[in-house]
Amino acid sequence: MTQSINVRHVLITIFVLVSLHSHATSVPVFNGLNFPDWSEQVQFHLGALDLDLVFQVEKPVAITDASSNEGKAHYKARERSNIICLMFMRMSIASNINLAIPKTDNAKEFMKFVEERF
Questions:
Q1: Is 87 helix (H, G, I), strand (E, B) or coil?
Q2: 3-state DSSP of 25-85
Q3: Which DSSP letter does residue 100 get?
Q4: Of 22, 38, 105, 118, whose CB is crowded by the most CB atoms within 10 A?
Q5: CA-CA distances (angstroms) from residue 57 to 24, 47, 78, 108?
Q6: What is the pLDDT of residue 23?
Q7: Alpha carbon distance 96, 8 (integer Å)
Q8: pLDDT tens, residue by residue, 47-88
Q9: Which residues are paired to 24 by β-bridges?
Q10: pLDDT by residue (tens digit) across 9-37?
Q11: Distance between CA 24 and CA 45 in Å, rounded?
């Protein structure tokens, strides 16, 4: 039974990654001149994939052993959203521009850096 669950988890993960890549390739590459269009498309696709939690809610306090299961699940979902959003945005930015954006591990900050610079 455990092997069946693991195979199912792998298949779901592969489906999500393929879907994410498909959406990312339909976003116009950010070239430094098209921020409004790029930003709108990024937000649309992340929303359509239900991955935009990081843009919808503030970062919750760190989880502890005393945190509720709901709190732990919310924290985990937001962290996953943050990681995937960062990857998605970086995939859709021209490489020479990616180098000019300060490194951050926060998707909201990343979007803000891009907006401020371009």
A1: helix
A2: HCCCCECCCCHHHHHHHHHHHHHHCCCCHHHHCCCCCCCCCCCCHHHHHHHHHHHHHHHHH
A3: T
A4: 38
A5: 23, 13, 8, 10
A6: 67
A7: 38
A8: 988 889 999 988 877 888 888 888 888 888 899 899 999 999
A9: none
A10: 565 556 566 666 676 778 999 999 999 99
A11: 8
Please give the distance of CA 23 from its chain centroid, rounded to a whole number.
12
Question: Which amino acid, one-letter code, is at 104?
Answer: T
How many angstroms separate the CA atoms of 20 and 37, rounded? 19
- What is the C-alpha to C-alpha distance for residues 104 and 110, in angstroms, rounded to an integer? 6
pTM of structure: 0.77
